[in-house]
Amino acid sequence: MSIQAMIDEWYPVGIFAQLDEAGRNTMLMGEPIVVTKDGNARVTGRNGRSLPVKVRYGHVWTSLGEPKKDLFPIPEADQPGRRFVDVGVVRVRCSPLRAVENFLDIAHFPFVHTDILGAEPHTEVQNYKVEIREDVDEVWATQVKFYQPQAAKSASGGITTEYMYRVAAPTCTVLYKTCPPRPTEWDVITLFVQPLTEELCDVWPWMALFDDETSMTDLIHFQQTIFLQDRSILENQIPRLLPLDPGMEIPTRADMTSIAYRRWLKRHNYTYGAQLVAQ
Amino acid sequence: MHTLTTGPWTPVALSADLPVGTVIPARIPAGSIALWRSESGRLSASADRCPHRGMSLSHGFVRGENLSCIYHGWSYARSGKCVRIPAHPGLEPPEAIRAKTFAVEEAGGVIWVATDEAATTPPVLEGLMPLRSMTTSAGIAAIEAAAGAKATAEGLVVPAENADTLCLLLSARDDGQTLIHVLLKGETTADSRIAASRVAESLRRAAEDLQKKGIAA
After folding, report:
1. What is the CATH number of the domain that holds A218?
2. Could you say which of B56, B59, B73 has the minimum Cβ distance to residue A110?
3. B55–A233: do the CB atoms touch at under 8 Å?
């Protein structure tokens, strides 16, 4: 484990709209922090140290180090006509990196999200494209296709959904998926993961959707149902840390995104929440 | 630490608690296992970890003669060999993809699992009918003290006050808990089985109290 390479990253620590003066006591990479609001958001670390703050994508972001770059862009966050959904928080007893990797995986849909995001016998994962985009230093998977009985709250009946996945930061990932009411646009669903410790995280999903029909409550419930199903997996994987070296786990062709993610983490020494052979 | 000499065999569960087509978690000294019974009734024990992504196999499901992982549906035969990867239905899974397996035997309504490829057979428990299993935080010494009797080499304790009806089969687990299988002697009725179950629960509570007071040391 090394905290060093990941310490200068931005991490989500709360929903901005839900902050109050009383503040929220939470934790970031083992350090107790307090997130409060006095006009803007304020984050205080150990010994009253003021931490850098950004408010973006519905959430408050902070860092224990000195961020060398701006928070990653999501252009769709400024697109008119989208609804922005602060889904809330799900605490998961797993490595923050495992939470991200699960989000990048489609092969589990028929078994974990049965009759919602997948259903037997439609289990096959077709070949898709994966790359590390050097200019932006992000992992991308494109041309990912999967049959889904109910791809979104706004979908009626089964459709083959197309996905693009993007890992924008070690614990933040963005998913672009077929938008049933607007075939020319992508719905955006993100997973922002707050690493509390190496083996405990708060997961903050956020969405930017074209859907004027579904109530906010139903949109939130849909996403929470999905993520609670994921939690039952994430809390029962052994080891709890994500193994970055080959040997502990056996990937197949369907796991190309996770293989690229693990390589990218290792290359940057992003190992907070990871297990290496040397350990 | 109290050592029982059941050889490599651990009494992990009662037959009645593992119906056809189901999987349950269990423990042996080597760690957690997935104990499962196929639809034709064949019993298997495998390591409780899918080699793909480390998911616990005891959360999985039994279909036909195979155990499937709940995460991605990878299926394992009784031998431990992976026989199906649903994401790639046309692919014959490589031989190297295997879940570790353990020898398993069922005798007199008790399921035994061996830590190594055992040439021996598990102990035979003559004239005893399994009733139920329970776990306790009490160690074997505390249970012996509560029962007023010593465990045999096989881990059998005959409680002094209920010697005609009751017998406890103990198994020390690696997590510090003790698994107790409650066995009955002779002819029973529904009423006598309920009574025996209550006696066993009282013994467990007494053993836990003794454990807390440190008498088991």
Report:
1. 3.90.380.10
2. B73
3. yes
Which regions of chain B are under pLDDT 70? 1-6, 117-119, 215-217
- Best residue in A106, A232, A238 to probe B by mutation, most B CBs within 10 Å? A238
Chain B residues whose beta carbon lies within 8 Å of the beta carbon of residue A125: 87-88
Residue A169 domain flag: yes
CB contact under 8 A, B72 and A107: yes
For residue A274, list chain B residues with Cβ-Cβ distance below 8 A: none
Q: Do A265 and A274 touch, CB atoms closer than 8 A? A: yes
- Count of domains for chain A: 1
What is the interface size between A and B, counted as CB pairs within 8 Å?
63
Q: Is residue A261 part of a domain?
A: yes
Q: Min CA distance, B192 vs chain A (Å)?
A: 40
Of A111, A249, A252, the CB nearest to B85: A252
Instruction: Read off the DSSP letter of residue A70.
Output: P
Query: Which of A123, A244, A248 is the mutation pick for testing B, counting most B CBs within 10 A?
Result: A123
ipTM above threshold 0.85 = yes
Look at residue B1 in the predicted model and tell me its pLDDT.
41
What are the percentages of helix, strand and coil residues in chain B, rounded to 5? Answer: 20, 35, 45
* Domain-embedded: residue A62: no
Tell me the pLDDT tens digit for each residue of A146-173. 998 876 777 677 889 999 999 999 999 9
Per-residue model confidence as pLDDT tens digits over A183-236: 899 999 999 999 999 999 999 999 999 999 999 999 999 999 999 999 999 999
Question: What structural domains and CATH numbers belong to chain B?
Answer: 9-114 (2.102.10.10), 128-213 (3.30.70)
- The per-residue DSSP string of A16-69 comes to GGG--TT-EEEEETTEEEEEEEESEEEEE-GGG-EE-EEEETTEEEE-SS--SS
Q: B86 vs A253: CB contact, 8 Å cut-off?
A: no
> What tens digit of pLDDT does each residue of A9-64 get?
999 999 999 998 889 999 999 999 999 998 899 999 999 999 999 999 999 999 99
Which residues from chain A sit within 8 angstroms of residue B87, using beta carbons?
A: 107, 123-125, 252-254
pLDDT in tens, A232-244: 999 999 999 999 9
B16 secondary structure, DSSP code: G
Place of tokens 């013994």: B203
| Residue A4 half-sphere exposure toward CB, CA atoms < 13 A | 3
Residue A154 lies in a domain: yes
Quote the CA–CA distance of A89 and A60 in Å, as a whole number.
13
